[in-house]
Design a protein that fits this description.
Layout (H helix, E strand, L loop, with lengths): L1 H10 L7 H23 L4 H12 L3 H8 L5 H31 L7 H24 L1
Helix pairs in contact: 1-2, 2-3, 5-6
């Protein structure tokens, strides 16, 4: 099953050659080929079985990063992204409330009430990021 070998070797082409890389590549190829053989035994055609086996195995990114020696650090990056999303979302919501307040009832300032409620969103994301950073 040359397609599987080509797929796995192409995925690992940017990883420096080592004994561990060779073992990992052979293990992944073996697992995907075993899965493809099972799919073929269950009645799938060859190409469909290979594609299903590759999809079933999953993403190789974490394995590649581990072999390169790079940190996975995705969890903290996601909390930073969530913080920025919450800040921008809160600013948009507050701007909308100010606009509605000034357009429909300029004599009564009520937009502060939903603003205080929405401020908790970025604050919780900020402290969640600090808590997660402290745990690592």
């Amino acid at each position: 099953m040359n397609e599987i070998i080509i797929y796995v070797e192409k995925a690992f082409e940017n990883v420096a050659g080592s004994e561990r890389k060779a073992e990992m590549v052979q293990e992944i190829i073996g697992r995907i080929e075993d899965s493809a053989c099972e799919w073929i035994k269950n009645g799938k055609d060859r190409d469909d079985a290979i594609n299903k086996s590759i999809v079933e195995f999953g993403d190789l990114t974490e394995i590649i990063l581990e072999l390169r020696g790079e940190p996975l650090g995705l969890q903290f990056d996601n909390s930073k992204r969530g913080l920025w999303f919450s800040i921008i979302g809160s600013l948009i919501f507050v701007a909308l409330m100010v606009f509605i307040n000034m357009y429909y009832s300029p004599n009564y300032i009520w937009f502060l009430y939903p603003t205080f409620a929405v401020i908790w969103w970025p604050l919780s994301m900020f402290f969640f990021g600090k808590w997660r950073k402290g745990r690592n």
